[in-house]
């Protein structure tokens, strides 16, 4: 058997031995792909054009979706809730706050105020002490109480089931509306775009935009409609568990071979400078 060096295996931490403090080298052999226009590859006396790399190619998108299915087969919303109204409240409170913190606050909150009518009867100042730990509690108190009053006065105490109606509620934008419609009412009206989805969609080159509404439109154009809600939850879970903001755990990631992100901690594929959060 010919002798030679055995290739190093990725460490479970996502870092390679002996590369601390310096940029990780790209694995060899390393074949660069064209980023625009066809590339000509010589094959004997004949030359043939090869297709340039397309991050939005249907087959690549299907592979990403399949990878997410393998990683998160039983995905669900991380916010604890038992009704559409509780989900509205929890989602409003989750802005600039972790789901873990929200789930610590809401059980006591819903025990103290069991119905939407109970919330509607409050003044925002009365709610502030109960949600203080979620941050931005003054604005959130106004939103929750305002949404409750709107639901009671305009919708008979029932959370509306359409995008247009949900967007009339104080504190409810497309993100919250998509969470409620997709998770509780099982209606795929859009893709939830939070910080995790923004970061990972850009890392995977599924969008170049930074604006949430533009990112949502980009994702809706390539992800099948029936997948919008599950895709959102899967990417959010992926952002919490593996594809974290700082030091993503690339060596443990089932999507590693499909990802060319510039800030990967370990890679078996070409790095693209433009693929960054």
Task: Give a topology summary.
Blueprint: E1 39-43, E2 46-50, H1 58-71, H2 84-93, H3 99-112, H4 116-120, H5 124-131, H6 137-155, H7 163-166, H8 174-184, H9 195-203, H10 212-222, H11 228-241
Antiparallel strand pairs: 1-2
Helix pairs in contact: 1-11, 2-3, 2-6, 2-8, 5-6, 9-11
Query: Reading side by side through the largest sheet, how are the strands ordered?
Result: 1-2
Helix content: 40-55%
CATH class of the domain at 84-184 reads: Mainly Alpha
The CATH architecture designation of the domain at 84-184 is: Orthogonal Bundle
Most strands sheet:
2 strands, antiparallel
Q: State the order of secondary-structure elements, H for helix, E for strand.
A: EEHHHHHHHHHHH
Mean pLDDT value: 87
Please report the number of helical segments.
Answer: 11
Distance between the termini: 45 Å
* Global shape: elongated
CATH-defined topology of the domain at 84-184? Endonuclease III, domain 1
Uncertain segments are 1-7, 14-50
Q: Compute the CA-based radius of gyration.
A: 23 Å
Amount of beta strand: under 5%
Sheet/helix structural class: mainly alpha
Number of E strands: 2
Within CATH, the superfamily of the domain at 84-184 carries the name Hypothetical protein, domain 2
